[in-house]
Amino acid sequence: xxxxxxxxxxxxxxxxxxxxxxxxxxTEEGKKVFNIVxxxxxxxxxxxxxxxxxxxxxxxxxxxxxxxxIFEVDIYSKEKGE
Length: 82
Prior knowledge:
This protein is of the alpha+beta class. The chain has a single domain, classed as 2-Layer Sandwich (GMP Synthetase, Chain A, domain 3), CATH 3.30.300. The chain has two helices and three strands, in the order αββαβ. The two termini are 21 Å apart.
């Protein structure tokens, strides 16, 4: 899944100096959540996550990559030191 999301959005979020580190589906409280983990060579502040999320959500909506069984998309940054 990570490769598909990376191919879809990495060129669009490159200007924000972030890239997709991981993408996976988890189950939270009985609902499927599509998780996208962003990373960078520098610290990622909340504004960049917000900007990247807007871009990623638009691309995902148009792509049809996410099925109807996904309840939520959660986009967040990888913590430094991991």
